[in-house]
Amino acid sequence: MIVSRANRLAKATTALRWAVFVLVALVLNFPILATVLTSFKTMADINTSPPPLIFWPTLENYVEVLFAGNADFPRYLFNSVVMASGGAVIAILLAFPAAYAMVRYDVGKSWLLPIITNLRALPLIIYAIPIYLMFQFAGLLDTRFGLALIAAVINVPVALVLFVGFIQDIPDELDAAAKIDGAGKWGILRHVIFPLSRPILFAVAILSFIYAWNEFIFGLILTTRQAVPVTVGATFFVTTYGVKWGATAAAMTLGIIPPLVLGLFAYPYIGKSMLTGALKG
Amino acid sequence: MAAKTIGLDQGDKAEARVFLAGLCVFLALMLGFPTLANLWYSFSDVSFQNLASTDFVGLRHYADAVANPRMWTALGFSVRFALLTTAIEVGIGLVLVFVLHPLLTKRPWLTGILMLPMMVSPALMGVMYRLILNEFTGLVPGYLELVGISMNFLGRANVYATLVAIEVLQWTPFAFLILLTARQGVAYELEEAAAVDGATGLRLFLHVILPIMLPAIAIVAFIRFIDGFRVFDHIFVLTGGGPGTQTTSISIHIYKLFFVQNRLGEAVALSVMLLVAALALLYFGLKLVVRRTAR
Question: How would you class A1 by CB atoms within 10 Å of its CB: exposed for 0-12, middle for 13-18, buried for 19 or more?
Answer without folding.
Answer: exposed
